[in-house]
Amino acid sequence: MNTIKHIFLACIILTMSACANDSTNNSPAKENSANTPTDTKSTPIQTAKATYQAFHSKVKPYTLYIPIGWTVKAHNKSGALDAKAPEKTDTIDYQATILLNMRKARMAYNEESKKMEVQPMDLSENAKEYMEGLQRNFDEMNVSPIEDTKVGDEIGKVFTYTYLKEDEFVNRIKAATYIFQHNSETYILTFKEEAKNFEAMQPIFEEIKNSFQFKSTN
């Protein structure tokens, strides 16, 4: 009788062990960091316009707040960011979009030091060069004059523009692009929305821009 009990207990133990191994092998894979969510551990910030969650870049020294429910994609190597508002139901309207890209500083040979060194960047030239690139790529682009601004305590430039681009959307898009520099890199922060909806979204875009901060290196 004791022998039968021992055999029965051994079978139970083996069955439980097999279930545990099965559970481990079928556990979900880690989320691709290219689809990084906002920091759900941080305290949400609520304003009269929206409720935001902090996003902290893993590879660049910046943080900003993004409305809860937006899709966030952060690129592992460059630190670039692409965030979109939820799709609008029963409509084909363009989704409000946040784009953040970086450009590394140019290197130039210094005759005095005999070394390759970071070439000082002129913010106005960077903004003008970027705007001209947009004009080559977008159809029927109307652009405002470049103005002074500030993002994340850094001096910057901003301009707004509207354009048509058939392969992106059939209606006119409006955008605001902020260009500023930090640690010898140029940051390009753009907010985009269908032109007819841009004014309604602008207060939220402004709050996102104002939330942008560079992390202290101390």
Q: What structural keywords apply?
A:
single chain, 218 residues, alpha+beta, eight-stranded antiparallel beta sheet, four-stranded antiparallel beta sheet, 3 helices, 14 strands
How would you describe what is shown here?
By secondary structure, the chain is of the alpha+beta class. The chain is built from three helices and 14 strands. The chain has helices at 2-25, 123-137, 195-211, and strands at 45-46, 51-56, 62-67, 71-74, 81-84, 97-104, 107-110, 115-118, 139-143, 147-151, 154-165, 169-182, 185-194, 213-214. Strands 4, 5, 6, 9, 10, 11, 12 and 13 form an eight-stranded antiparallel β-sheet that branches. A hairpin with a 6-residue loop joins strand 4 (71-74) and strand 5. It is globular, with a radius of gyration of 25 Å. The model is unreliable at 1-34 (pLDDT under 50).
- Shape, per Cα inertia axes: globular
Radius of gyration: 25 Å
Strand segment count: 14
Number of helices: 3
Largest β-sheet summary? 8 strands, antiparallel
Helix content: 25-40%
Structural class: alpha+beta
Mean pLDDT: 80
The low-confidence runs, each spanning 5 or more residues with pLDDT under 50, are: 1-34
Terminal-residue CA separation? 72 Å
Please trace the helix and strand order, writing H or E for each element.
HEEEEEEEEHEEEEEHE
Give the strand content: 35-45%
In summary, what is this structure?
The protein is of the alpha+beta class.
Give the helices and strands, then pairings.
Blueprint: H1 2-25, E1 45-46, E2 51-56, E3 62-67, E4 71-74, E5 81-84, E6 97-104, E7 107-110, E8 115-118, H2 123-137, E9 139-143, E10 147-151, E11 154-165, E12 169-182, E13 185-194, H3 195-211, E14 213-214
Antiparallel strand pairs: 1-2, 2-3, 3-14, 4-5, 5-6, 6-13, 7-8, 9-11, 10-11, 11-12, 12-13
